[in-house]
Amino acid sequence: MDAHIDASLLEGEGIMCEVLNENLVFVGLGASAGFDVRLVVDDEDYERASSILAASHSCE
Fold first, then answer.
1. Which of 59, 58, 55, 53 is CA-nearest to residue 2?
2. Which residues constitute the domain of residue 43?
3. How many whole angstroms separate alpha carbon 13 and alpha carbon 36?
4. How far is the C-alpha of 45 from the C-alpha of 31, rounded, in Å?
5. For the chain, what is the domain count?
6. Nearest-CA neighbor of 47 among 8, 10, 19?
7. Residue 10: other Cβ atoms inside 10 A
8. Residue range 38-55: average pLDDT?
9. What is the pTM of this model?
C-alpha cells in the first residue's frame, strides 16, 4: 500500500513510475522468496523522485 501512495505522489509531480512485485507478495512469494515490492522510476527521474519521497517521509 505504501508503494502506491508514493507512486501517486510522484505521478502528481509528473514523474512516471511503476510498482513491481506486488502480486507476488499477495500469493505468498514475498520477501521470504527474495521478492520485495519495488517502486521504479526512470534513471533520469531518480534524484528528483528520491528528494520528493525523502521530503514526504520526513513529514510523517
1. 53
2. 2-58
3. 25
4. 26
5. 1
6. 10
7. 20
8. 96
9. 0.76
